[in-house]
Write a structure and sequence with these properties.
This protein is mostly helical. The protein is built from five helices and no strands. The longest helix has 34 residues. The two termini are 13 Å apart.
Length: 97
């Protein structure tokens, strides 16, 4: 849960930096080869672009650590009828349930 919160924080930092400069580019688009170029063309300063790049690297690092944990916990979530029921609520995924 702590790793997921860190990842969410890094995503929020990226969106916050973009908001400072009136830019809205998806994380998926930023991860492409020209993502930082798009920020540069939008007038985002180098220091902010570096911060975005660092946050993207952190998100990738955390994703690699979270995925095995998700895979380990998923069978437990699917086996618990309460979790299955909670999973039907929009915004509540099986692991949160």
């Amino acid at each position: 849960m702590h790793l997921v919160r860190l990842r969410t924080s890094a995503k929020g930092r990226i969106f916050g930096l973009q908001a400072q400069w009136g830019v809205r580019i998806s994380l998926w688009r930023l991860r492409r080869g020209d993502g930082m170029t798009l920020l540069e063309l939008a007038g985002v300063p180098e220091v902010s672009r570096r911060s975005v790049s660092d946050c993207l690297a952190l998100i990738d690092f955390l994703d690699a650590r979270i995925e095995p944990l998700d895979a380990e916990l998923r069978p437990f979530a699917k086996a618990d009828p309460r979790a299955v029921l909670l999973d039907t609520i929009p915004g509540v995924a099986e692991l949160l349930a």
